[in-house]
Amino acid sequence: MRTISKRALGLAWVMPALVLVGVFVYFPLVENLGFSTLKWDIYSGSQEYVGLENYRDLIDDPVFWSSFGNNVLYAVVSIAFQVFGALVLAALVESIRSERWQRRLRAIYFIPSAISMTVAGLLFYFIYEPNLGPLNHVLQAVGLGRFDHSWLGQETTAMPAIIAMSQWQGFGYSTLLFAVAVQRIPSEIYHAAALDGTGPIRRFLHVTVPLVREMTGLMMMVTISGAFQVFNEVMVMTSGGPDNSSQVLGTWLYRSGFVRNNFGYAAAIATVLFVITLGIAMAQLWVTRRRRVEW
Amino acid sequence: MVSRLGFLGVIARVFVWVFLLGLAVVVLYPLLWMVLNGFKTNAQLFGDPFALPVDWSFENYQKAWNRGVSNYLTTSVLVTVTSTIATVFVSAWAAYGLTRVDIPFNKLITGTILGGLMLAPTVALVPLVKMFQAMGLYNSFWALLILYTAFRVPFTTFLIRAYMLDLPREVDEAAEVDGCGRWTAFWQIILPMCKPIITSTVLLHILFAWNEYLFAMVFTSGSGVQTLPVGLTSLMSKHGTEFPVVFAGMVIAAVPVVLLFFFGQRYIVKGLADGIGK
């Protein structure tokens, strides 16, 4: 009896964390499912049960689908640049002989990830600005003036421009992580490959790529999950405009709830986001677990 | 044959250097442009966006400071400091309980706390707003302190727990022989041994709290407790025609975290690598 109560006393160590996570992370998730079945005006306080109507509206909402498409585009481009591009870049940085320059370059590439997405977003808002922005000036200077553009002001270029900024902001972060993974590869393996007369490109493909496979998998999951949670840069640069063309699920959720006062609908979008991010997390768990068994 | 390979090797090396340095310029130039613009007048900025500032006066910084940036900065510092302390202590306690104390339902509790890593803040947004309105904490400093702590406890616990698992068992036994209670053992023996990972988690949390936008925007936008990321956007919408003032505000927001990264690089990299690579 005494041992049981003593064991239970140990729970005091984990209680603060458990309560915080339970009340502010898990409970809202469950509550959100309930909210998504309501027609709910937060200002008048009126709530009405409407079943799955919000989800049916979702299916018929073209902005929901274009937002979803923008998240997918975000994920695809980010995988290309921040996973595969960063892996190649990390290997290139590791291939130079001066360790001091390796460190310097990695640190420089990381700076945009240290400053906030808000600062980066505002900075590129000015860079894309049609009149004073350096981007159009540079295009004119190199004779590409016909591409001169109101980058964030036009439906076709707003989303690509935001995605491009976010690659600038984020590639250094994943390069840094890949660099750590590359450094963990025992140097004997490289020496052996070099003695065999294997060139640098084949060494990259046959030694580096397979041996950082685990990091690559993790970075892919993190990147995809991040791409579906995009919010900050879109809010700062376009607020989803022009004409909702750069809307993503996160900003469409915000707009539906907090601007259009349709919180039930916002909750339904949140549920979709929940299913997507949970699915990605599950896939990640499944992959890492299977690998552990394999080895 | 050998010399030809050597020649190709040199060419390849030159290409690699040109590419790497070119990329460094692509990263650094926009940042430099931002810093320089903070020293210009509107006329100079619109006249030639590439020109160097004529006189290096801090007038724009002063204007930005007086138009709210001092308040945003104070709030940011306050939220960052308090949520860092809360997050790291709550997480270190939890990690200690999970790794070095015999508690019931250990697996379940570990799964619950670390499972929070998988959940996106956006998903909980609507219920959280309702909850904080009901508690009377909407539009307050407390909302950010609580949310930044709750949503970062899983990640921070994850990092500290992994570190504590690797500490030898004998440490606890020695503490017990010395007659230390659990509480003393935690503060005087285990926590000091965890200093490297505590440093990492502190720095990572500062980066997070300083830059966070979603919660800051939704929970404080209409009040006097805006943090820098939100404050900058309102500076922009209020004084959007005076671009150099906005640039100055951006620089004020960016400098502390860039400095932090350069001084704490080793710990930040280690924390990130352990967090994602394990």
Summarize the SSE layout with pairings.
The complex is a heterodimer of chains A (295) and B (278).
Chain A: H1 2-9, H2 15-35, E1 38-40, E2 47-49, H3 53-60, H4 62-95, H5 99-114, H6 117-128, H7 134-141, H8 155-183, H9 187-195, H10 200-211, H11 213-228, H12 232-237, H13 249-259, H14 263-294
Helix pairs in contact in A: 2-14, 3-14, 4-8, 4-11, 5-8, 6-8, 11-14, 13-14
Chain B: H1 2-37, H2 42-47, H3 59-100, H4 106-115, H5 121-134, H6 141-165, H7 170-177, H8 182-193, H9 195-211, H10 214-220, H11 228-238, H12 243-277
Describe the overall structure.
The complex is a heterodimer of chains A (295) and B (278). Chain A is an all-alpha fold and 295 residues long. Helix content of chain A is 75%, strand content 2%. Chain B is mainly α and 278 residues long. Chain B folds into two domains: 2-37; 69-277, MetI-like (MetI-like fold). Chain B starts with a helix and ends with a helix. The model of chain B has no long low-confidence stretch (mean pLDDT 89). Classes of the chains: A mainly alpha (295), B mainly alpha (278). At the A-B interface, helix 2, helix 4, helix 5, helix 6 and helix 8 of A face helix 1, helix 3, helix 4, helix 5 and helix 6 of B.
Number of strands of chain B: 0
Largest sheet of chain B: none
Assign the CATH superfamily of the largest domain in chain A. MetI-like
- Would you count the extended β strands of chain A for me? 2
Q: Which of globular, elongated, flat, extended, rod-shaped describes the shape of chain B? A: globular
Order of helices and strands of chain A: HHEEHHHHHHHHHHHH
Summarize the entry for a quick read.
Chain A is mainly α. Chain A has two domains: 1-31, no CATH class; 36-119 and 165-294, MetI-like fold (Orthogonal Bundle), CATH 1.10.3720.10. Chain A has helices at 2-9, 15-35, 53-60, 62-95, 99-114, 117-128, 134-141, 155-183, 187-195, 200-211, 213-228, 232-237, 249-259, 263-294; strands spanning 38-40, 47-49.
